[in-house]
Backbone:
C-alpha cells in the first residue's frame, strides 16, 4: 500500500469573537491542502470565519489515567468560587 | 441500518466481567461519554470499528446511486441541489472515518477492507436508481430511514461517534426534504410523472424497510451493543416508527404503499405491515444484489485511478518540506 496522507486536527472559529474549537480531523498531504479540505468538509454551511489545522502527531495530550492527580489540586479550593462568600443583601449587587 | 449486520459477541453478565469491565459498564450506565484514549473492553473497540466503518462506507458508496443522476437532473437548480446533497454524503463518510480512526485503525486500512469485500455497506445502495423519481424516493425514504436511526445515535456512548452523528443529523433534514419536494413535484405533474413516482415507491419500499436490519427475533447479537449504548433501539422498533411516519406522507402524495396487508392497528397505535423478503436481504448482503459488483467496482476504480494523484501530492509535499528544511536550520 502506498503512503497514507498524514492526519490533521481541524479547529474552527465559528464567529468573530469566539475561540477556535476542535471539530474533527482529516487527511491531507500538506498544510495548505488540509486547509482546503477542512473548508469543504467542515464549513459547507458557513460554519466558520477562520480555520486552523495542526498535524495530529504534534499534539501532546494529558493521559486519562492521570485525570485524578492532574485535576485534584483544583478540587479542594472551593474558596475560588464567588458563592463561597456570604455577602449581606444590603450591600447590593457584588 | 447503515450498519445493518454488525457482528458482536454475546452479552456479558455482571458476574462474568472483570473489575475494569464493570467500572466501564457503570460509566456507560451513568450516561458518561467514553473518549478514545480511555480504557475500553477490546470487544467495545472492535464492534465500534466495524459499526462506524460500515456506516462510513455506506455514506461513501451511497453517493453512487444519486451521483448517477447529477448530469441528468431536469433543471439547473435540481442539479445544484443534488450535487450539494451528494457532497454532504462525502462529508458524512469523512466525519465517520475520522471517528473510527480515533480507535486505532486508519482510513486507508478501512478502505482496503471495503475494497477486498471484508467490510460491508448498507444493502440499500445495491439497488439501481432507474428514473428521476428515484431521486425523490431515495431522499424521502432512504434518508428518512437513515435519520430514524441516526437521531438516537447522537446519544451513543462513544464521544467521537456521538459528535459525528450530531453533525450529520444537522445536515440530513435537508436531504429528506429535497427528496420529498421532488416527489411532490412528480405527483403534481402529468399522469406519467405520477406513475414514475409510484413506480419508484414500489421498488424502493421494501429495500428501505430492510435498512433497519433483520427482525429482532433473528438479530441475536444486539444485546451487548444495546448495553454499551452503541445501538440505541431495536431494529423492529425503528422500522415500526419509520412506517408510521411514512404512510401519511405517502397518502399526502396520493401514492399507494405497495403492501396489501398495511393497515392501522388502533390497539398498538401503529400500522401493521408486511415484512420484507429476508432471503432477498441476505442475498444482497452476500453480494448478489442487482448492483453490488457495479458499486464496489466503481469504488475500487476510483481508488486505483486516484493513486497517482495521491502519491504525486505526497511527493510534492515532501519536496516542499525538504526545500524549507535547510533554511530553517540556518
Ligand atoms: Fe448521510
Ligand atoms: Fe443523507
Residues:
Amino acid at each position: 500500500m502506498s503512503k497514507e496522507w498524514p492526519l490533521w486536527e481541524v479547529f474552527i472559529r465559528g464567529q468573530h469573537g469566539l475561540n477556535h474549537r476542535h471539530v474533527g480531523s482529516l487527511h491531507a498531504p500538506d498544510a495548505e491542502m488540509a486547509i482546503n479540505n477542512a473548508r469543504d468538509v467542515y464549513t459547507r454551511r458557513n460554519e466558520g470565519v477562520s480555520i486552523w489545522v495542526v498535524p495530529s502527531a504534534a499534539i501532546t495530550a494529558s493521559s486519562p489515567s492521570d485525570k485524578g492527580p492532574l485535576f485534584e489540586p483544583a478540587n479542594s479550593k472551593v474558596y475560588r468560587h464567588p458563592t463561597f462568600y456570604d455577602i449581606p443583601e444590603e450591600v447590593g449587587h457584588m | 441500518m447503515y450498519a445493518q449486520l454488525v457482528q458482536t459477541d454475546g452479552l456479558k453478565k455482571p458476574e462474568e466481567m472483570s473489575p475494569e469491565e464493570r467500572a466501564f459498564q457503570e460509566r456507560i450506565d451513568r450516561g458518561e461519554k467514553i473518549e478514545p484514549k480511555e480504557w475500553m473492553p477490546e470487544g467495545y473497540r472492535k464492534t465500534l470499528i466495524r459499526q462506524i466503518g460500515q456506516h462510513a462506507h455506506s455514506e461513501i458508496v451511497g453517493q453512487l446511486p444519486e451521483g448517477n443522476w447529477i448530469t441528468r437532473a431536469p433543471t439547473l437548480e435540481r442539479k445544484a441541489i443534488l450535487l450539494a446533497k451528494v457532497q454532504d454524503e462525502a462529508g458524512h463518510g469523512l466525519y465517520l472515518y475520522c471517528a473510527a480512526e480515533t480507535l486505532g485503525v486508519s482510513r486507508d486500512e478501512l478502505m482496503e477492507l471495503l475494497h477486498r469485500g471484508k467490510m460491508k455497506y448498507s444493502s440499500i445502495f445495491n439497488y439501481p436508481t432507474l428514473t428521476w423519481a428515484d431521486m425523490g424516493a431515495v431522499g424521502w425514504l432512504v434518508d428518512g430511514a437513515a435519520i430514524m436511526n441516526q437521531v438516537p445515535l447522537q446519544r451513543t456512548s462513544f464521544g467521537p461517534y456521538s459528535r459525528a452523528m450530531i453533525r450529520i443529523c444537522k445536515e440530513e433534514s435537508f436531504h429528506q426534504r429535497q427528496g420529498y419536494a421532488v416527489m411532490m413535484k412528480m405527483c403534481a405533474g402529468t399522469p406519467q410523472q405520477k406513475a414514475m413516482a409510484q413506480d419508484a415507491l414500489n421498488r424502493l419500499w421494501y429495500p428501505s424497510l430492510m435498512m433497519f436490519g433483520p427482525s429482532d427475533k433473528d438479530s441475536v447479537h444486539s444485546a451487548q451493543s444495546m448495553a454499551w449504548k452503541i445501538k440505541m433501539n431495536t431494529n423492529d422498533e425503528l422500522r415500526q416508527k419509520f412506517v408510521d411516519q411514512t404512510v401519511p406522507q405517502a397518502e399526502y402524495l396520493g401514492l399507494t404503499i405497495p403492501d396489501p396487508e398495511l393497515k392501522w392497528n388502533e390497539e398498538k397505535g401503529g400500522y401493521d405491515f408486511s415484512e420484507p423478503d429476508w432471503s432477498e436481504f441476505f442475498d444482497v448482503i452476500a453480494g448478489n444484489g442487482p448492483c453490488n459488483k457495479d458499486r464496489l467496482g466503481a469504488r475500487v476504480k476510483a481508488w486505483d485511478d486516484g493513486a497517482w494523484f495521491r502519491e504525486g501530492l505526497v511527493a510534492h509535499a515532501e519536496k516542499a518540506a525538504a526545500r524549507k528544511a535547510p533554511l530553517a536550520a540556518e
About this structure: Residues 4 and 213 of chain B are 5 Å apart (CA to CA). Residues B 59, 89, 92, 146, 168 surround fe (ii) ion (ligand 1) (CB under 6 Å). The longest strand of chain B covers residues 263-265.
